[in-house]
Structures are given as C-alpha cells and as structure tokens.
Amino acid sequence: MTLLPSRSAPPTSRLPPLFLLLLLLLLTSGSYLALSSVVALGANIICNKIPGLAPRQRAICQSRPDAIIVIGEGAQMGVDECQHQFRYGRWNCSALGEKTVFGQELRVGSREAAFTYAITAAGVAHAITAACSQGNLSNCGCDREKQGYYNQEEGWKWGGCSADVRYGIDFSRRFVDAREIKKNARRLMNLHNNEAGRKVLEERMKLECKCHGVSGSCTTKTCWTTLPKFREIGYALKEKYNAAVQVEVVRASRLRQPTFLKIKQIRSYQKPMETDLVYIEKSPNYCEEDAATGSVGTQGRLCNRTSPHAEGCDMMCCGRGYNTHQYTKVWQCNCKFHWCCFVKCNTCSERTEVFTCK
Ligand SMILES: *[C@@H]1O[C@H](CO)[C@@H](O)[C@H](O)[C@H]1NC(C)=O
Ligand SMILES: *[C@@H]1O[C@H](CO)[C@@H](O)[C@H](O)[C@H]1NC(C)=O
Ligand SMILES: *[C@@H]1O[C@H](CO)[C@@H](O)[C@H](O)[C@H]1NC(C)=O
User: Fold this and answer.
1) Contact of 277 with 193, CB cutoff 8 Å
2) How many CB atoms lie within 10 A of CB 14?
3) What is the greatest pairwise CA distance in the chain?
4) What CATH architecture applies to the domain 297-357?
5) Any atom of ligand 1 within 6 Å of the Cβ of 130
6) Burial letters 87-112, b for 16+ CB under 10 A, else e
C-alpha cells in the first residue's frame, strides 16, 4: 500500500465531479457559455431563497440571473427614495408585515401604497435602463433605433449612446407586474400605479447634445437621450401623491370581475389619467402601531418642537406629547496648521436637545 497516487491514473481523477463538469464546459464551449452556466447554477439557489417572489418572477429570475441583481438594486433605489421623500411624515415609508424584494407591503390600498408601487416600478425600469447603457446586461444596450439618424428640422444627428428606456420599462412591466396574481380591485390599482411610475420616468428622459467643429463652432451636432436623476422622479411622484385620485372599480363583464377603474364621484364615468396615482381606500392616520393597517406608529420618532408642519411634535406625535433628550455635542474646532507638520485643534462643545414622540 502506498499513499502516493499511482502514476498511471489520469491526473484529474481526484477532482470532484462538479469541477470536472465545469472544466469540460470551459474547454468545449468557449468561456462565455461556461461562465453563464456557472451563474445559472447559482441562480437556482439564489432565486429560490428570495422571499415573496411570485412564480412568474421566480422563472424570470432563473432565466435572467444577471438581471436579478439589477432588479434588486432598482427596487432598493425606489425604497430609499421613498424614505427620503417621506422622512418628515408620520408615515415614513416603513410598514409592518412581510418583507419582499420591494420592501414592506402596505395592506391598505391607500395613496401611500400607490406611491410605493409607482416608485419601485420606476426604480426597476431606471436601473435596468442604466445597466443596459453601461453594457452590464446581456440582451440589451444602447437604443439602436436612435443611431445615425439625422433630425432634418432641428439640424442634429443621433449619436453616442441613447438610453434604451423602452427596454427598461418593458422589463419592469414583465417583472414587477408579475406579482399581481389575485384578480381583485387592488390588482387594478397596483397595475395602474406601476404604469404611472414608469410613464413619469419616460416623460422625464433628457436630451443631451454635443457640438463638433473647429473651436466649438457647432457645424455638426450629435444628441442622445439620457436618464433623469432618480431624485427627480422622486419629487415628481411626490407631487402625484399629493394630487392622488380616489377611484372605484367597475365590474363590467358578465362574470362581474373587476374590469377597470373610474374616478370615485357620483355620476362620473371618467377614468383616471395615465400618470395619476390612484387609491381605493382612505389612509389610516399612522399614529399608532396597528397590524391591521400595517402602520408602525410614530412612537420614538424624532420631531421638531417649534415647527407647525408635519415634522412638528404636535402633528408627528398625534397629541401624545414628546420626550426631551439633552446631550452635549463635542467636536474639534479652530484647527490650525503648524509648520511643520502638525495640526492643533481645540475641543468645542454645545448643549443640544432633541425631541421624540411618546
Ligand atoms: C455596471 O457594472 C460595473 C462593474 O461591475 C459597476 O461598477 C456599475 O455600477 C454597473 N452599472 C450599473 C448601472 O449597474
Ligand atoms: C420610520 O419610523 C419607524 C417607527 O418610528 C422607525 O422605527 C424607522 O426607523 C423609521 N424609518 C426611517 C427610514 O426613518
Ligand atoms: C424646526 O422648525 C423650525 C421652524 O419650521 C426651523 O426653523 C428649525 O430649523 C427646525 N429645527 C430643526 C432642528 O430642524
């Protein structure tokens, strides 16, 4: 018996079979295919671990593992923007309940729910479009239709990389909308708000141009479309939120299934506009924690003692009053540079107060 491997055995016989399989793929099919197989192997595991995906979303996840990361980033961008826009509100974009890729879901079909759906749908479309432009995703890139064409009237040519927002929007539609599986009024509301978010993004695409010619003379000009900053979408949707429209469902078919939404007013048969945010239920006041509405309440929230607005303690704490916390803020100040070479500072301090809701 010997512990040394026998000379006649093939040199790879001790490697695990999975490694061999991958090696075989690498050698036989070019590195790109092999790489995507490795990614796909991981995707099965990753996609099954993501909580709250609908079956069709899980299928998209498995077939496009490169996109799922970008989808996650887009949804997170939507949640972050929501928290920024509502940082001074009683509702600060958090909710009780199950955590999904899209953050926490609101149970009540309120205008707050409308905002979260619109901003995540827009976030996913924005992130996918940006990733396409940077060449980070297979199957997409710059907008090919806007390449080389000459705009006769305005005297410029499409050039550079135009962001393919239609691809991003299409992708968002296929993925984000796939979570609406129940055939009820809330589904119609969610789908409308998803579409409104994407439409707001599409309407705010920008045109950027560059002049060419001796010393900037602009003998020729090339232009391309770019994505707006996502902050701009946040503000635009916040305005839509302030003007959100209450709707009700119309059951038009013989099966009395929810068919479309109309503005909730007596004797009105008007449909909401495409870019309106719509809601079907009144908002709770978000003062107390309440599992039935998903409200987390405002206990412990920071508030401003003197402000008469939403962030003021009166409004924020719903009349329950507030606690005062005093602390001493300490920092380095009056720093001077001495030759050579050190910096000398004083220590400054200040008594400060913060207020939190009872
Ligand atoms: C594209 O990929 C690069 C390198 O991985 C990364 O730094 C960048 O943030 C990605 N861009 C987008 C829009 O996902
Ligand atoms: C929102 O408010 C809740 C409840 O007071 C708090 O726990 C949470 O940290 C806040 N979230 C943000 C993003 O400020
Ligand atoms: C509180 O609100 C007042 C009035 O709106 C404002 O002047 C002040 O800067 C706010 N304080 C803080 C700490 O935000």
Assistant:
1) yes
2) 8
3) 95
4) 2-Layer Sandwich (3.30)
5) yes
6) ebbbbbbbbbeeebbbbbbbbbbbbb
Q: How many helices (H) and strands (E) does the chain have?
A: 8, 14
Give the pair of three-digit tokens for residue 127: 């992130």
**If phi over 0 gives left and psi between -120 and 50 gives alpha, with beta otherwise, what is residue 340?**
beta
What is the reported pLDDT for 95?
80
Low-confidence winner among 27-36, 176-185, 215-224, 229-238 (lowest mean pLDDT): 27-36
Beta-carbon count within 10 A of 70 CB: 21
Q: Which residues pair with 302 in a beta bridge?
A: 356
**Cβ(198)–Cβ(171) under 8 Å?**
no
Predicted TM-score of the model (pTM): 0.83
Pocket test for ligand 2, best of 94, 298, 320 (most atoms within 8 A of CB): 94
Report the pLDDT value the prediction gives residue 233, as an integer from 0 to 100.
98
Q: SS3 helix, strand, coil % of the chain, rounded to 5?
A: 40, 25, 35
Model confidence band, residue 339 (pLDDT cutoffs 50, 70, 90): confident
Q: How confident is the model at residue 220 (pLDDT cuts 50, 70, 90)?
A: confident
The residues spanned by each domain of the chain are 45-97+104-144+159-205+229-283, 297-357
d(CA 68, ligand 2 centre) in Å = 27
Q: Residue with the nearest Cα to atom 5 of ligand 1?
A: 136
